[in-house]
């Protein structure tokens, strides 16, 4: 390495020296640059003349000589660069006088293509120092410009923080923003990317826009390429620069041409104004995967743990195209098809657009948005190289293949399967069916003893063959939050780790994404609330302790009074703290525990909005399907609610598909959700989240991460959590802040789980063989039920708790087998047989729900208080993280066996009160509110309130009714003096209570109920 001096000129000279001696570039003369054309005309002409002699001779003839031809070509290229953009011309060439000219030759896939390699080597890559590019500002110069065949492709501003100026990369960024004219032909239209770098950090942008220019990090991460770390670059030895990868790797001749060929693309709009250049990790992950495949071929798995903010959709598109054209060193195409799996039943529109945008041949990409026949045609046809589909279509393709010659054709191919979001669905039956459709592993490959397979249906053995790793399928699985099973299924064993932990093949961590500013840390303003309750038992009865305690807790937490108090906190916080952000367009999400809770939350929020005449908050709700109210004590029992009708405006329902775009409008501020939009929901205006649901592990991370999307004006996020412990939430995030690891599973767990099922004495082993003799995916339920009837009847003879425990044993074995059968080196036929039987038997038993425990009609909430805790920055990045476990051998199903402990309801309520109600006082009483309503109703009968309610709006009915509230308060004996004084002294409290009481009376009189 050359001796370094500590000047910017020395830094620049060192880079150019490396490029010209090692990197395959030539140094150019800045005086050869034509400022008007934005080209090195001599290089452009020489390249065309040397590589396309016949076409050049035609142009010379038509243009009247060499100079005329040169002028015509350069003028035409300049015009087309301005009109179509640089990347379009570099890839597609240009026509002058109807003569076609290539402007660059890319490396051919086949090593034997000598002509292609000769043309490729003729490309002229030239680096020019100190290019005075602007005639209007002749003193300005760009430190480095990278030309390909005379066309500018990149510029770079270099700084050396150890020089006399002390300037670093920030000064280079400032220069681009403030001292460079974005309208200049070189900077505004020709160069595809602009680099700002010093010896330690690198940034880049594809569009200069003055002060509005956004530079993105182009750093490896402090842990190095594909490894856990934060922002920046790894520390290197005293003789090197942390940013040396830029000129030693990225700008290296072959790599630079590959980037132009395979990675840089124009997203549309004004040509050259929406260019995409990959961030370092995006380029590196594609390069790393392809390099491994090129050496090792098909049949391997690659887990890519890339955080939100990584640009995953673009990574998938780049990887799909790279793999579709990947050849081995001997010139063989490695994959016949690339299959991109998105787990959403409706294909991801953004993913489709991105993959197609990269395609240089549009017919090479097929989106399966119709039926399974379309998927089969794409897999068996020659045109489609990349197929985008959902996993759910493969079972139907498998059925179509029965008896068709195409079945073996598919198994003879090699496939790259890219999984958009790797999680538990990859251990499901649809994932096995994918392998059954295209997997090459045969029954013979199972290496089973003849005695094992005697009498076993061939279809069952084929299922076994489809479960494990297939020699002709490579998996590339993307996720930000891998579970233990995902790591073991797709991950890579860590060398040197004593327990053989699995980790991702490539990592872009949550930490790096946060530090680089691509996502926000959602735990920086985390407020927890505690809920204090006191209950009273209205009847005495003996109940199972565990179930009754859970029901008591749920009764208290989901009580309408408790919800009303939380809803008031949400509205007050949203209006005071959240709404002012983002110019008044900040939004919030309420996360609920169930679909019925989502209905109740929306009703509670809208009731308060109406009562307090709030005009600046509108609310939407999101849940799937229908919600029928079955609680006999609910005023709207029997009502059915749907998302679309609850979001109706002006009497017109809002289709589910339009909800995200509607919520994006300024009119709406709060979205109430239940198991919907907690993952895969990209809304940068989301600033706050109100959590009324237990969250743990990956679910906590995925749910709260809806807040992490960046917005130009978004600096803070807020979480108000009514349920969870903040430290538990922090622990969940710590697991995914860096590189997640998982311990390998105990191979004996499957045998142990199978033995537990058999030891119950319920499953008739002879009946398993009878069941499998008629088993097929299309077999009738009636036939399969008949062949499992003895075991089913034996299960029904168990008492409720033993049957629940047995069903848990079945579920556990089925769950273990689905996963372990995909990673085990050897499978036992008896386990496959038990799996098919146990899965069906467990489904049958689900129709016999165990007797429930009801406490709602026997207890009453008497006191409640919502207590705000401290707001904390939870401090990501400081906790110890243990490897995940894929599956656990602890326990044997859901039950624990033995006699179920019982307890008296009164004693259980007392235990609950001791835990949650010790700090409550008379001021927290709830029951007097209902007494007030009842007393107000008595008064109303004598004062004609019923007649006033009928035919009037609620607003007209409630106006001027505070005297009714005061009269009722004075007449209710259980209202303590503190509450009475509060009503008399506090106008706001009095108005709220009046609205609450009058709303109850109005609903009672008009029969509207809570749905009104």
UniProtKB/TrEMBL annotation:
Stated name of the protein: Type I restriction enzyme R subunit
InterPro entries: Helicase_ATP-bd, HsdR_RecA-like_helicase_dom_2, P-loop_NTPase, Restrct_endonuc_type1_HsdR_N, SWI2_SNF2
Gene Ontology molecular function, alphabetical: ATP binding; DNA binding; type I site-specific deoxyribonuclease activity
Entry annotated with the keyword Hydrolase: yes
Species annotation: Conexibacter arvalis
Every Helicase ATP-binding domain range: 293-500
The organism's place on the tree of life at top rank: Bacteria
Gene3D superfamilies: 3.90.1570.50, P-loop containing nucleotide triphosphate hydrolases (3.40.50.300)
Gene Ontology biological process terms from the UniProt entry: DNA restriction-modification system
């Amino acid at each position: 390495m050359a001796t370094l001096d500590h000047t910017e000129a020395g830094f620049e000279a060192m880079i150019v020296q490396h490029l010209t001696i090692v990197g395959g570039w030539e140094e150019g003369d800045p005086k050869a640059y034509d400022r008007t054309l934005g080209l090195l005309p001599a290089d452009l002409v020489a390249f065309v003349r040397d590589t396309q002699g016949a076409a050049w001779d035609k142009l010379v003839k038509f243009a009247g000589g060499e100079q005329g031809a040169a002028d015509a070509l350069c003028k035409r290229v300049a015009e087309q660069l301005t009109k179509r953009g640089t990347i379009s011309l570099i890839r597609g060439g240009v026509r002058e006088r109807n003569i076609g000219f290539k402007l660059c030759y890319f490396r051919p896939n086949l090593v034997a293509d000598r002509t292609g390699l000769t043309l490729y080597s003729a490309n002229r890559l030239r680096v020019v120092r100190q290019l005075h590019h602007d005639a209007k500002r002749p003193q300005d110069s760009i430190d480095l410009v990278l030309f390909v065949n005379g066309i500018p492709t990149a510029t770079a501003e270099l700084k050396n923080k150890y020089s006399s100026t002390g300037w670093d990369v920030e000064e280079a960024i400032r220069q681009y923003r403030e001292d460079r004219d974005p309208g200049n032909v070189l900077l505004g239209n020709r160069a595809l990317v602009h680099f700002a770098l010093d010896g330690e950090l690198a940034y880049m942008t594809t569009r200069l826009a003055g002060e509005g220019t956004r530079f993105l990090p182009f750093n490896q991460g402090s842990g190095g390429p594909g490894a856990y770390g934060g922002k920046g670059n790894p520390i290197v030895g005293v003789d090197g620069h942390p940013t040396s990868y830029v000129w030693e790797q990225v700008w290296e001749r072959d790599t630079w041409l590959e980037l132009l060929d395979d990675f840089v693309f124009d997203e549309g709009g004004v040509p050259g104004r929406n260019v995409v250049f990959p961030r370092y990790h995006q380029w590196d992950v594609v390069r790393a995967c392809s390099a491994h495949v090129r050496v090792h071929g098909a049949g391997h798995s690659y887990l890519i743990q890339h955080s939100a903010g990584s640009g995953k959709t673009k990574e998938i598109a780049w990887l799909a195209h790279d793999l579709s054209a990947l050849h081995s060193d001997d010139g063989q195409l490695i994959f016949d098809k690339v299959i991109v799996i998105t787990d959403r039943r409706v294909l991801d529109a953004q993913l489709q657009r991105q993959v197609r945008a990269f395609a240089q041949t549009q017919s090479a990409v097929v989106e399966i948005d119709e039926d399974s026949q379309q998927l089969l045609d794409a897999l068996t046809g020659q045109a489609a190289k990349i197929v985008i589909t959902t996993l759910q279509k493969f079972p139907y393709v498998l059925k179509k293949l029965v008896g068709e010659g195409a079945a073996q054709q598919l198994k003879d191919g090699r496939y790259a399967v890219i999984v958009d979001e790797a999680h538990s669905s990859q251990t499901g039956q649809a994932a096995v069916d994918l392998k059954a459709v295209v997997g090459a592993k045969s029954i013979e490959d199972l290496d089973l003893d003849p005695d094992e397979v005697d009498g076993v249906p061939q279809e069952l053995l084929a299922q076994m063959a489809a479960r494990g790793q297939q020699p002709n399928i490579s998996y590339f699985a993307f996720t930000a939050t891998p579970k233990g099973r995902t790591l073991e299924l797709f991950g890579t064993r860590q060398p040197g780790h004593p327990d053989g932990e699995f980790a991702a093949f490539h990592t872009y961590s949550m930490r790096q994404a946060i530090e680089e500013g691509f996502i926000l840390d959602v735990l920086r303003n985390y407020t927890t609330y505690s809920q204090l309750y006191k209950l009273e038992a209205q009847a005495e009865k003996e109940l199972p302790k565990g179930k009754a305690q859970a029901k008591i807790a749920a009764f208290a937490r989901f009580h309408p009074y408790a919800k009303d108090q939380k809803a008031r906190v949400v509205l007050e916080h949203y209006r005071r703290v959240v709404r002012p952000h983002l110019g008044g367009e900040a939004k919030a999400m309420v996360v609920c525990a169930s679909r019925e809770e989502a209905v109740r939350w929306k009703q509670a929020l809208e009731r308060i909005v109406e009562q307090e005449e709030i005009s600046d908050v509108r609310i939407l709700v999101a849940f799937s399907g229908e919600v029928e109210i079955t609680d006999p004590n609910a005023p709207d029992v029997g009502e059915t609610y749907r998302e679309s009708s609850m979001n109706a405006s002006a009497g017109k329902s809002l289709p589910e598909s339009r909800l995200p775009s509607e919520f994006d409008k300024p009119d709406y501020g709060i979205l109430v959700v239940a198991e919907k939009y907690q993952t895969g929901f990209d809304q940068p205006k989301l600033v706050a989240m109100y959590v009324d649901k237990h969250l743990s592990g990956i679910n906590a991370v995925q749910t709260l991460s809806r807040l992490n999307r960046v917005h130009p004006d978004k600096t803070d996020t807020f979480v108000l959590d009514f349920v969870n412990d903040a430290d538990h939430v922090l622990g969940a995030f710590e697991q995914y802040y860096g590189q997640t690891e998982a311990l390998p599973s105990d191979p004996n767990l499957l045998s142990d789980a199978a033995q537990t099922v058999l030891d119950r004495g319920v499953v008739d082993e002879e009946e398993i063989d009878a069941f499998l003799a008629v088993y097929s995916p299309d077999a009738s339920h009636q036939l399969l039920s008949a062949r499992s009837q003895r075991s089913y009847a034996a299960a029904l003879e168990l008492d409720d708790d033993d049957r629940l425990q047995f069903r848990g044993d079945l579920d556990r074995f089925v769950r273990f087998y689905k996963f372990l059968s995909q990673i085990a080196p050897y499978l036992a036929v008896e386990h496959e047989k038990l799996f098919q039987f146990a899965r069906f038997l467990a489904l049958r038993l689900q129709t016999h729900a165990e007797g429930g425990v009801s406490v709602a009609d026997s207890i009453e909430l008497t006191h409640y208080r919502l207590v705000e805790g401290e707001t904390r920055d939870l401090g990501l990045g400081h906790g110890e993280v243990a490897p995940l476990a894929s599956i656990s051998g602890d326990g044997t199903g859901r039950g624990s066996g033995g006699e179920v402990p019982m307890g008296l309801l009164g004693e259980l309520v007392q235990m609950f009160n001791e835990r949650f109600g010790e700090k409550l006082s008379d001021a927290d009483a709830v029951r007097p509110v209902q007494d007030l309503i009842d007393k107000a109703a008595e008064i109303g009968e004598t004062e004609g309130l019923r007649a006033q309610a009928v035919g009037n709006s609620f607003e007209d009915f409630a106006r001027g009714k505070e005297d009714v509230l005061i009269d009722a308060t004075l007449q209710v004996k259980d209202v303590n003096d503190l509450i009475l004084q509060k009503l008399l002294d506090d106008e706001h409290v009095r108005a709220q209570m009046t609205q609450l009481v009058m709303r109850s009376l109005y609903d009672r009189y008009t029969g509207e109920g809570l749905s009104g």
